[in-house]
Design brief:
Helix content is 0%, strand content 53%. By secondary structure, the chain is an all-beta fold. It has one domain: Immunoglobulin-like (Sandwich), CATH 2.60.40.2560. It has a four-stranded antiparallel beta sheet, with no helix packed on it. A two-stranded antiparallel sheet has the order 1-4.
Length: 96
């Protein structure tokens, strides 16, 4: 499990101070979920504490256009796969 502090700034819009639809999605080992999906003012700061599991990505959308993608962390390959290893060789019993 990974906990991070995420600070996102809504970009300035060419149309003035009109609110923009902002969506932040997180993809991790548990699936994909919305962290934030609402309107925000241009220049507004969005501040979150996020808990994720495994390799994690955050996608930042403004008016349904992807404007940024950040990797929060990466797990080594096979971190969640259990593959049985070879059985240990039998030990010879000590002489009595």
């Amino acid at each position: 499990m990974r906990q991070v502090h995420l600070l996102a700034s809504v970009p300035a819009d060419q149309t003035g101070d009109k609110p923009l639809r902002v969506r932040l999605t997180v993809t991790d080992a548990t699936g994909k979920w919305n962290l934030y999906d609402a309107f925000a003012q241009p220049g507004q700061k969005l501040d979150f504490n996020v808990s994720t599991l495994g390799t994690s990505l955050v996608d930042f959308f403004v008016n349904d256009a992807l404007v940024a993608e950040s990797r929060l962390g990466a797990e080594p390959p096979n971190a969640y796969e259990h593959k049985p290893g070879p059985s240990p060789a039998p030990q010879a019993s000590p002489p009595r």
